[in-house]
Description:
single chain; 10 helices
Amino acid sequence: MFLSxxxxxxxxxxxxxxxxxxxxxTALLTRLSGGxxxxxxxxxxxxxxxxxxxxxxxxxxxxxxxLVAVAEIGLVVLGYAVGAMLISHRLAGVSxxxxxxxxxxxxxxxxxxxxxxxxxxxxxxxxxxxxxGLLAIxxxxxxxxxxxxxxxEVGPSRATVITYFNPAVALVLGVALLGEPFTVGIAIxxxxxxxxxxxxxxxxxxxxxxxxxxxxx
Length: 217
């Protein structure tokens, strides 16, 4: 609800840039909570580079006259970060399908009073129904399953780095489907996002014990 309201007042560029702060907030909260996901210089550099790449992509359209909307997205960012940590540390042994069903069920109940009072006057078009189906199946159900699997595999800090790709995907679809121009800024932003994500998520292999004695075959 916060995000939907804020995006009616802020530019899409600013909204995307603010949401892209999720990995930074997650990394900071993980560090403050004493998590096992170590935050070294390489990962901090990767997070900063990735965030700067998002800023380049969205064109730094950061004119925000509505500070309430900015604060609302700040709460959304905090919620995304805390949610990923809760899934990893508190709900690791719980069925992902159960958590997804419960969270969406609570959301549906919260939205029901607003939705029932704003029902359309005419039947929805075929295109609208197809769009709703795609949003429900691919962007919600499948996305949740993949996100839970990603958190289980790499941890909450690394998993939330995918937030950097939100504005990137939007721009790719705009270029491919809407004929929007592919600029030098987009190319640079993509490169920075890829580099930052690689630095922030790459696992470092432990060094072999130099003092270990080789065992003869």
